[in-house]
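Bump. Still looking for Bifunctional salicylyl-CoA 5-hydroxylase/oxidoreductase structure tokens.
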Amino acid sequence: MAGAIAVAGSGTSVRRIAVIGGGPGGLYAASLLKRLDPDREITVFERNAPDDTFGFGVVLSDETLGGIEHADPEVYRALGREFVRWDTIDIVHRGRTHTSGGHGFAALGRRRLLEILHERCAGLGVDLRFRTPAPPAAELAARNDLVIAADGVHSATRTAHADAFGPGVTEHRNRYIWLAADFALDAFRFEIAETPYGVMQLHGYPYAADASTVIVEMREEVWRAAGLDTCDPAESTTRCAKFFTEALDGRPLHGNRSSWLAFRTVTNSRWSHGNTVLIGDAAHTAHFSIGSGTKLAVEDALALTACIEEQPDLPSALTAYEAERRPVVASTQRAAAASLRWFEELAHYVDQPPRRFAFNLLTRSRRVTHDNLRLRDASFTAAVEEEFGCPPGTPPMFTPFRLRGLELRNRVVVSPMDMYSATDGFPGDFHLVHLGARALGGAGLTMTEMVCVSPEGRITPGCTGLWNDEQALAWRRITDFVHTSAPGAAIGVQLGHSGRKGSTKLMWEGIDQPLDSGNWPLTAASPLPYAPGVSQVPAELDRAGLDAVREQFVTAARRAASSGFDLLELHCAHGYLLSGFLSPLTNHRTDAYGGSLAGRLRYPLEVFDAVREVWPQERPMTVRISATDWAEGGTDAEDAVTIARAFAEHGADAIDVSTGQVVPEERPEFGRSYQTPYADRIRNTVDVPVIAVGAISSWDDVNSLLLAGRADLCALARPHLYDPHWTLHAAAEQGYTGPGAPWPLPYGAGSRTPPTGRTDGPKPRLTLG
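Sorry for the wait, here they are.
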């Protein structure tokens, strides 16, 4: 952390500094740089008056305060005298209040924060120029060694040099307004109001002994339906107070240049240009619901100052600053985006059981997790677990789950993973060891890779199949092993057809690249190659082809049943044949199987119905879908809900919600659990269980997703490649020894975590000199 700054250091030859913007980030950077070198000439340009500020209270984390304490004890002491501290969160919904403790907040008035920083800058000799618009950044850059652009979300500097910074600004769907109440709430309060116009929410927290910040937020359509789009600020303030009379105990709200806003997420491909650098909201924004705006700006100032002191020249310092801060900011923005989306989709959650709703809200950003919340407030978390149905002493992931006639002993699924290790479609010893090891490793359900329904339906020559009886016998060897050697474990088969993505090399020889020789003809919904100019052009399936492929799925399903599989999944994702019918980017048909989403659904549903008819009725059948194509004009979250609902109405027992891999020009938003919001959306909109996938990497993530009601099962791929016994180790690490994760008798001696040697933590990167 760049929180502890060495006073005595070589530093760079940065003597003249101009700061554009007198917010917390700009002022704090100015004070730190001046403190470290009193001979520096530092000028802060602020177009407003010293006491002219928007908003009310700001929240700072203990981590940020620790950095301030090490960097400038005087500022830290001044802040400490002003802070209001509390550690509880109240969630008020449908007349019930659920309280969770142990959260630790510190807040103070924004105006008072600025006054403290003004006093510190003035005392150090920083030239503060209020009511003075800054000259253009290019002009300042010509006569200063460094220009710090702290000019906020509407940064003129960023706009003027957009070609260098590469900004991206995304405006979101909710409307919100910053207001205040003249009394102190006794906790951080989230209150939900279900009005005739739609769902509204209040975010409130104290920032002084007699004052609280109150933010009212709602979807734009709710805002318009309530007539708030035509209200003046005074009327908006009055009406918001009436919507949340209980929270305010009938008392009024007031504004401070308050108006309705739509949040804007700001990103930049670069944060510096020559000797000009962006910090705070000029460089990046994070939704106010995670309280990180001021925190990020202050931490930017700390990091920038530290890098200027450490590095031999300014270019190196600015490069180091961005390298240090960008991963932290990206992580915060991902958390903020998850929180923002949660509040945008709030209406989908209001019918959850009350404690689950509260837990879901608290864990919305994925920064607070089940394990973390259990440490903060064990009694609250235990009540949520009880409502969920956890047996005593059982983590959520080890509660059983029933799909039709199959009861899974836990909620962990080994996700389908193509191994490309078959010969002529036959699963061999590799597959026995691979799938057998993971079933022995404790997962409730182990899935095969995509098993192809015909030789022409393979992705690569190394893919497995079920197009003949000999292959079925080979699969029977594997299912018998699982059922005999891992009693209680289930094994499922995923049936699919490669469509236009077939006849390619093994993954490690060139993913999605056509074979050098021995290619077979491809078929698809439309004659569109996967990679134009590279991939083979598939033939569009005609009536006879549609019937033939459907029959291949039916025959393979019969063989899968005789092979002893407990569950069958129909692969309608990742751009393979059935997925190709669903996406408008890959289905350009003009017959009954194209056009509208209903038309594009027609053939996958016909295949599903035909397979369901021959698949044993007591055994469950699931469907994997790509809930978004991550590409303009493709399948989106709304389409995914419609697709999931259609399969559920046709008898799907669960929807396995993946994303992407449909078109090569996709732009996924990678990150921890990045695909789970799509599963969440379907689960809380459609009456069907869901399997969540997508960079779920820890047992804590699994417990959190389940307990919040965002998924019923969690499928993990790479963690099971890294550790075949991932589920058993998750049980051991949580101290769980119950029926949800029984160790195979020969492995019993390994059921405790082995001891490890002592390790000492790293020393601070910088220390106060």
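The radius of gyration is 29 Å.

Edit: fixed formatting.
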